[in-house]
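To whoever picks this up:

The nightly regression suite flagged aminobutyraldehyde dehydrogenase as changed. Nothing in the input moved, so I suspect the structure step. Input below, exactly as stored in the fixture:
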Amino acid sequence: MAIQIPSRQLFINGEWKQPALKKRIPIINPATEEKIGDIPAATAEDVELAVEAARKALARNKGKDWASAPGAVRAKYLRAIAAKITDRKSELAKLEAIDCGKPLDEALWDMEDVAGCFEYYADLAEGLDAQQKAPISIPMETFKTHVLKEPIGVVGLITPWNYPLLMATWKVAPALAAGCAAILKPSELASVTCLELAEVCREIGLPPGVLNILTGLGHEAGAPLACHPNVDKIAFTGSTLTGSKVMTAAAQQVKPVSLELGGKSPIVVFDDVDIDKAAEWTAFGIFWTNGQICSATSRLIVHENIAAKFLDRLAEWCKNIKISDPLEEGCRLGPVVSEGQYEKILKFISTAKSEGAKVVSGGARPEHLKKGFYVEPTIITDVTNSMQIWREEVFGPVLCVKTFSTEDEAIELANDTHFGLGAAVISKDLERCERVSKAFQAGIVWINCSQPCFTQAPWGGNKRSGFGRELGQWGLDNYMTVKQVTQYISDEPWGWYKSPSKL
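Regenerated output under the current build:
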């Protein structure tokens, strides 16, 4: 039976609202290339209403309903959201799979992570009250000082299409836990599950205006959100190019931003590894989520002593990856998200070949799939440091390869990038792994694995991969400001100025 995409409107002030211009954007199933529904297209007028609703939500009852309510109050709503997501896990995973092409098993895993993330930030919200008025030791006995942690205010959250609901949750859960009110703008390429999050919020009775969800195009909805004077912060996940534009817009009002941007992460494989274990992690690091991960370890740097054997074995692992419709049992590689991405990835592969690189595995559409935006797992060798395939993010199932002979050379190759999101090292020598981990210029390092991610641990990059950290306590701090409160406690006058005479 075909999965029905619910027809939704924009979610503003706790209600479904038709977009001002009444425009809608078609949803294309990337596995079939067929239209399966549509989403509302928000514009600046809708952003205005959403920001106004968020402002009112913060001010309601002088903030006591949400922003300055006890953390336990907000935690109750976050846990209710988590419970609903868990109840609807199977349905939401199927919607995610047909919307963005993600294999169903991955989408199910994502839904578990979504619920887990809301639960985790519910716990942190409850813990916030005990942290208030934390005293600070100061060197003068005539004063006492403490710190208040307060929500930053109204936040704009702009999220990508590769993990539609999970990336939204990474921002929504901590923002709400902190006491902010939010406007979520998911990618127009995959918004279906974010609109279902709106329905969940409506069902559990989340106070109106606390979370508003606007689907639409970046230039029509994302841009007016980023530069809106009544939005206090923007958190963005997406391309480095768009991130730069968001930062420029926010800079006009000296508005804080946190950016999680592109990557070209290395995986360094030494010659003492178990070949099969290392090959599987190498494949997983680039072909999981159809290769569409900002942290994908898309540059393999392998020791020259094992390079030929390792690449032969890796190619065998790749041929064993089941490429199919995401809903088919056992699917491990689905289609990329859109025709535009499909064409862009194939162009990267053809440019690599024209620059002198060699495609040793994959590189085209799988022969058994005539429809859909499918690209085979691709391995490219004979790569030089100046080639586009080595320097630019493909955001698809494409791995480029270079060899090394010394540890220092491996580190130099690993850090030879404008990006700095993730990096992996595989070796049985754990002291070497420690040295290499310290030398990597990246925000996330994996030892003898690639891509594991936990809600409790910080996530974010260096260099052009952005700044700020999501997840863990760091994710909550993203949405809070710190207020210093200092009190003079002596009965004595201050005595700095000569006292005027008393008549």
